[in-house]
Amino acid sequence: MERELAGRLKNSNVLRFFGGMATYLAVPPGTRVATVEMKINFLEAIEQGTVTADARVIRRGRHFCVVDCDVRDSRGRLAGKALMTFAIGAGPNDEPPSASRKRRS
Fold this sequence. Notes:
Helices cover 15% and strands 42% of the residues. The chain is built from 1 helix and 5 strands, in the order E-H-E-E-E-E. The chain has a 5-stranded antiparallel beta sheet with strand order 1-3-4-5-2, covered by helices on one side.
């Protein structure tokens, strides 16, 4: 994915956005997703030009999705690197927990 910079855009916003998009594309439509953990390395400042992000789902399990994301400037320099973990919530077709479920003592 590419995006032209308009004004000041923080690298963390770019990394979060593309990491979240990769996660949403890996789960069924309507599934709730929440950020659990995010480790970001800021390597270069990008003040103008085109930003290219490559976000890859490393593993998608039943409850968590791990995403790796690289952000590069228009010259191809690596400007940011992130490893993110997202919790995968209930989807639109998931049944709500049963009200009749017995509680453990």
